[in-house]
Amino acid sequence: MLDPDVCYRALRARDERFDGRVFVGVTSTGIYCRPVCPAGHAKRENCRFFPSAAAAQEAGFRPCLRCRPETAPEHGSWRGTSNTVSRGLALIAEGALDGDDASVDRLAARLGVGERQLRRLFKQHLGASPVSVAQTRRVLFAKQLIHDSRLPMAEVALAAGFGSVRRFNETFQLLFQRAPSALRRKTVVALPEGSVASAGVTVRLRYRGPYDWESMLAYLRARAIDGVERVSDAAYHRTIAFEGGMGTIEVRDLPELQSLGATIRFPGVRALPDIVTRIRRVFDLGADVVAIGVHLTRDPLLAPLVAARPGLRAPGAWDGFELAVRAVLGQQVSVGAGRKLGSRLVEICGGRRNGAGPAEGTLAVAFPDATRVLHADLDALRMPSARRQTLVALAKATLADPLLFQPRRTLDETVAALREIRGIGEWTAHYIALRAAREPDAFPASDVALLRAATDRAGTRPTPKELYARAEPWRPWRAYAAQHLWAKSARASDGGLPT
Ligand SMILES: [Zn+2]
Questions:
Q1: pTM assigned to the model
Q2: Among 25, 88, 183, 376, which residue is least crowded by beta carbons within 10 Å?
Q3: Burial class (CB in 10 A: 0-12, 13-18, 19+), 232
Q4: Ligand 1: distance of its center to the CA of 32 in Å?
């Protein structure tokens, strides 16, 4: 529960730590703001505090045009607390409550809870109903595209998940008493229809600092697959493909804005929210690394690692199946060897972009989906045949259950579901849970690099069982502890130490 006095002090101080955690509705104006709003402070008695933008909007407040609540960092305090809320938000971000046939009932069923329980959990953690959360998400995403992009209004409406342009106009008229186009800065020139594919849309995605961009890029660089990904000094590029469309993303850090800038080139605007959600996941924008760091620092093994990389994130996966394939290719081999196998797989069965040649260094190929892997001739992959069979089993399981890589009610359930696939053991299941299902407590205790990094001063390397026991106090953030240990281990191998 939010303490109004604490919230008001945070507001007076424009305390950035509260940005994304608290939204303040001002009763005298009907507007809600971020605590860092540059506009003057309202009187204490006119302030109401909310744990989410949706809660403020549900209470009848409209978003401030100056501090732009849509640009607040994701608050994410439910991560590690309520898996159901976390999963529900992920599904809503993918559009589960957009469209005329959407229902909270069906969303609850997908999450394995009753509708009333889902409402109660949303109320408890976000202060708003699932429907309000979805509505607010649409409005705020549309507002961001109006401000930051040059997309025509009709495309903004589609991209944000409004069923029709009329509904989009009505919603904005009701909230802001003006047409959506009136919110666009005059200096912005609208692009012609269909231009997202060529010129691209750039969105800013805010994070709560610190953000260790160098470590993130280093992680992605070490695993970049030829033709699919390219990591330059400052940016990450990759091809993206789904629902028959193919495009690219380019992501760079904008530290002065505490944001990542993502340029998306994709033929269908309706895919934009999904693409943005995936980018948030890959770059772990929702993590509160300060709070996580405080928790992990209690262990003397982790304290110096957290101090060295306070902004370290746990990279997520662009796609669950892709990540699982990478995990299987990486079984028992080095990161570099896993990367080569990935590049070979993409050569064998990746999807080529129209007109794109196989020239080296260009982003010409999409990572193969489950159907392509299932029908590919995998004999050319130089690895044990049992592992090739695991790829086939993985493709079949993915086609049979599209929700395979969603987190379940508990980490144990997520891991158990993955372990049902032949060839997926405890290590691989935890690794997939960590990266694809974004389980913050996943921990592949038998990982060789983790065991190496956890070696004590006397040179004694723990057994997986000992490391597992050691990691118990790191809950519910063991995934971040693992990331710190991996970062340490990667640096040691860069320095020429034995691997
Ligand atoms: Zn404001």
A1: 0.86
A2: 183
A3: exposed
A4: 6
